[in-house]
Specification:
- This protein is mainly alpha-helical.
- The protein has two domains: 113 residues, Endonuclease Iii, domain 2 (Orthogonal Bundle), CATH 1.10.1670.40; 109 residues, Endonuclease III, domain 1 (Orthogonal Bundle).
- The protein is 53% helix and 0% strand.
- The chain contains 13 helices and no strands.
- The longest helix has 15 residues.
- The relative contact order is 0.16.
Length: 230
Amino acid sequence: MDEPRPKPRNRSPDGKAGQLPFDPAEGVRHVSAKDARLGKLIERVGPLRLRLAHLQSPFEALAESIVYQQLSGYAAAAIFARTVALFGPRKFPRPGDLLAMPEERLRAAGLSRGKIAALRDLATKTIDGTVPQMRELRKLSDDEIVERLSAVRGIGRWTAEMLLIFRLGRPDVLPATDYGVRKGFARVYRRKELPTPKELLAAGEKWRPYRTVASWYFWRALEGAEAGKG
């Protein structure tokens, strides 16, 4: 899948808007030193401009991800807006609000039965603590977060990895199933075929502990040398 839409209003745990919890310049130096081809791309694109997305609770972020799955951005945005509007004047429903909303009203907003089931499972698992609150989430390892979030219906490893990168700013995430990262890798290495996830993970060992940096530049590889939104 392509890189999600970033929302630059977020604040990092130390209160600075959009700031990553690791040194991006150090990450860029490390990856450039370990990988000459990727280093050439980094030189063309320029500094890492990854910014944390708009601060949401894990429930809000994952609910949005579920709604957006397998839809074009425009269609998903319209359905998401109609769904949230059901719970006005709240800006976003609480888990209990979602569980209490009749299915027919959610269907009328454009949600499929599968997505309604996934959203309700997310709400239930948020209430019972399976889905951690942000304060707890920040204390967990990457693998622990993936395991906890993947217990929710409709949430897989890719969605958890996007939260790790764009909500938490974790430095060493390589979403090996992501189409954009795989395509960017193939372009940088001039391969006709996309790498398998296993091949990408093997290649990515040299980028540790800054695989997030490499991933961001692979997304940029699809946008050209002047790209860099994010």
